[in-house]
Specification:
Layout: H1 3-16, H2 22-33, H3 59-73, H4 87-112, H5 122-133, H6 163-180, E1 191-194, H7 205-225, E2 234-238, E3 247-250, H8 261-268, E4 279-283, E5 289-291, E6 294-303, E7 306-315, E8 329-333, H9 352-377
Antiparallel strand pairs: 1-4, 2-3, 2-4, 5-6, 6-7, 7-8
Helix pairs in contact: 1-4, 2-4, 3-4, 6-9
């Protein structure tokens, strides 16, 4: 192995397998200054330090310890009315905790990058097309304004399609079903949206529970109509995009009212620590695909209206009713041996060419829904008569 490669590999191993130094040094400080108000019985502010895991490599855990760091570093904790630690004790505590939090952050950056992959903003799209084609044309005005997150329009988590896309797809699927004389539910999972949600403060629970209950009841009726023996479930997730975070599977409305602190922390933020304030509740569709002994879901690529390929997201540690965008996932090319532009009547409906054809139909409907969404959110509606 070349020396440069070896050094790089060892550096990555150092980042991804850190040895935490802070716990031994932190315990005396926590015992003396924090535990009386944040134990398993008192846990003021929802913070329970009794038995709290210390592993900043885990995002949710890191967020909790970052909160502790901020409060202690700013002198907000312990409260002014309580006995205060010596400046050198406070300094040593935050220095050790900061070191571990930074090590964990660098490890995540080495593994996942500094931010999620995102689409181009409308300004970047205009610049790119003009540069490639050597033209000077106003293109950004043809697109709706990009979402602004924390004051910036280039945050990947903000540049995602929202519930507006699902609403447009619902219309397309309903029209498509009417044309073919089929129940649109077969190609259109139902959904609902709840805003003004705060999992930490338990705000929005009534909206969540009511919509979950409504969707599950509709699903039970459909399952009975079509003889489906599976247990209905819904997926609750951040409406602004998740990147595998802020997602939970729910089979009964009571589950969202009984979340423990860890579950609330998990649902409260998505990547880069962005707060969750709006959630979408989607009808769960059991994943029937299996690839390499793992649960798999297809992703279809299109150019214009043509299906050109795709891939499977595979996760051997997740079940058919769970989010596959999680640690342990792998990707495998979804190879279309034929164009799959038409079904093959000589084969069973579940044969690969027909199954891939069905994926392509849904992908085309989703593309049409995206165009409708863009049209409706275009700031210049005069373009559409």
């Amino acid at each position: 192995m070349p020396l440069r490669t070896l050094v790089h590999t060892l550096f990555i191993m150092m980042l991804t397998t850190p040895a935490w130094s802070a716990p031994q040094l932190m315990k005396p400080f926590l015992d003396a200054n924090c535990i009386d108000c944040h134990d398993s019985e008192t846990h003021k502010g929802g913070l329970n330090l009794d038995g709290l895991e210390y592993d900043p490599a885990k995002h949710d855990n890191a967020l909790t310890w970052e909160h502790v760091f901020d409060r202690v570093n700013k002198g907000e904790m312990p409260p002014k009315k309580e006995a205060q630690p010596k400046p050198e004790e406070r300094g040593a505590f935050v220095a050790e905790l900061s070191k571990d939090l930074r090590t964990a952050s660098l490890a995540r950056q080495a593994k996942d990058g500094r931010g999620p992959v995102r689409r181009l903003t409308r300004v970047e799209y205009e610049t790119t097309v003009n540069d490639l084609l050597h033209i000077h044309t106003d293109l950004q005005s043809l697109f709706p304004e990009d979402a602004v997150t924390a004051g910036f329009d280039k945050v990947g988590d903000g540049l995602t399609l929202s519930a507006a896309h699902f609403a447009a797809y619902q219309e397309v699927a309903t029209s498509f079903g009417a044309e073919l004389g089929i129940d649109p539910w077969l190609i259109n999972p139902e959904f609902a949206v709840c805003g003004k949600v705060n999992f930490h403060e338990r705000a929005g629970e009534d909206c969540l529970a009511a919509n979950i209950d409504t969707l599950l009841n509709r699903m039970r009726a459909k399952y009975q109509e079509y003889g489906i023996g599976a247990e209905p479930f819904v997926i609750v997730k951040a409406d602004a995009g998740t990147y595998g975070m802020g997602i939970m599977t729910v089979k009964d409305a009571s589950e969202v009212r009984n979340l423990n602190r860890k579950q609330r922390n998990k649902m409260s933020v998505i990547k880069e620590g962005l707060a969750v304030t709006e959630v979408i509740i989607q009808e769960g569709v059991p994943t029937v695909e299996r690839v390499d002994e793992g649960t798999a879901e297809p992703v279809v690529y299109m150019i214009d209206r043509y299906v050109v390929g795709g891939f499977y997201r595979v996760n051997t540690s997740r079940g058919i009713d769970e989010n596959l965008n999680a640690p342990g996932m792998t990707f495998k090319p979804l190879a279309f041996e034929t164009g799959c532009t038409l079904p093959n009547a000589d084969l069973d409906p579940d044969a690969p060419p027909n199954r891939f054809y069905a994926y392509g139909v849904v992908a085309r409907l989703a593309m049409l829904a995206a165009s409708i969404e863009l049209e409706r959110t275009d700031p210049d509606q005069s373009l559409y008569g």
